[in-house]
Design a protein that fits this description.
The complex is a heterodimer of chains A (107) and B (181). Chain A contains 4 helices and 2 strands. By secondary structure, chain A is α+β, with helices and mostly antiparallel strands. In chain A, β1 (60-68) and β2 (74-81) form a beta hairpin. The termini of chain A are far apart. Chain B has 181 residues and is mostly helical. Chain B is built from 7 helices and no strands. In chain B, α3 (31-52) packs across α6, α4 (54-81) runs antiparallel to α5 and α5 runs antiparallel to α6. The chains are: A alpha+beta (107), B mainly alpha (181). The A-B interface holds A 26-28, 43-46, 48-49, 64, 67-68, 70-72, 74-77 and B 5, 13-24, 26, 36-37, 40-45.
């Protein structure tokens, strides 16, 4: 039976990026973190779509930050992982570790 | 950047995402990057609207085609009543009716105008493809292949003008801040 706490690969990458970035996590650094560390180019629109979905599930929370000149007077929206989100990340990590255990060395 | 921002506002893309795009573009991203990101942002804004409000989308499509019927009847009535230089008339009338159609669809579906105008535009593109295919088969089977080269490009340009004017009319009306995410 599928675990309701399981996360898709992009969901997991976004959540891990939020955890790594801490309080300064908004669209631009999240996308850059996924591209640098996750080796995966992701459009900003896609990042926001994932964040919206995670927020609906209660795994992340967002708040408006300051508007700046560089952003044409538009405010940043900062995201952080909730306790429920952290639980789901841990649960997914344990599932992945269990699946990788015993897999022969890949060339 | 201005053109991209204009489009993003028309499709009610959230302000924070627009701000991110402005910030990244200011840091040296290319124009190609900007337009690719704009397309993704608009698609991500429109798709959920269409998925959650498919009944409204059907209504928008029906509204558009009903208006087309009205324009065709009006055109036929005018042509019968007032003989005139049809080329001049078409130059004026042809951009006007699709722009009005797009504008009416946007105004009658204010909360989701971007998605609804796109829904109608997609139905029009499907109609274009269907008509082109029909014409192509007709000319092929009647052996009048030479006319294909003459007729099809003109019809293609006509349909493109209609589509462009529909979108222009639909996005003339700027959504209010309350409608922006």
């Amino acid at each position: 039976m599928p675990d309701k706490h399981s996360l898709g690969d992009l969901d997991l990458l976004v959540l891990l990026a939020l955890i790594r970035l801490g309080p300064e996590a908004y669209g631009v650094p999240i996308a850059r973190e996924i591209e640098d560390k996750g080796k995966r180019a992701v459009a900003l629109g896609t990042v926001y779509a994932v964040l919206d979905r995670l927020e609906e599930r209660g795994l992340v929370k967002s708040e408006l930050g300051e508007a700046t000149q560089e952003r044409g007077g538009r405010a940043k929206r900062y995201f952080h992982v909730t306790a429920k989100g952290l639980r789901d990340v841990r649960s997914t990590r344990e599932a992945l570790i269990a699946m990788w255990r015993g897999v022969p060395e890949l060339a | 950047m201005k053109a991209a921002k204009w489009l993003l506002e028309r499709f009610c893309v959230r302000e924070s995402l627009v701000g991110d795009l402005v910030e990244e573009y200011g840091c040296g991203r290319s124009a190609w990057w900007l337009w690719r990101e704009t397309a993704v942002a608009i698609a991500r804004a429109v798709a959920p609207d269409l998925r959650h409000h498919w009944v409204l989308a059907l209504r928008a499509v029906a509204t558009g085609w009903l208006l087309n019927l009205v324009w065709v009847q009006l055109l036929a009535w005018v042509m019968l009543r007032y003989p005139m230089d049809l080329r001049a008339f078409f130059v004026v009338f042809n951009p006007l009716w699709p722009a009005l159609t797009g504008w009416v669809i946007a105004r009658t579906h204010k909360a989701h105008q971007g998605a609804m105008v796109i829904a109608y535009a997609v139905s029009f593109v499907i109609y274009m493809v269907y008509k082109f295919w029909g014409l192509f088969m007709f000319y092929r089977e009647t052996g009048a292949g030479a006319y294909l080269l003459f007729v099809l490009p003109r019809i293609f340009v006509f349909f493109l003008v209609v589509l462009a004017c529909t979108l222009a009319g639909g996005f003339l009306h700027r959504p209010s801040r309350a409608q922006s995410r």
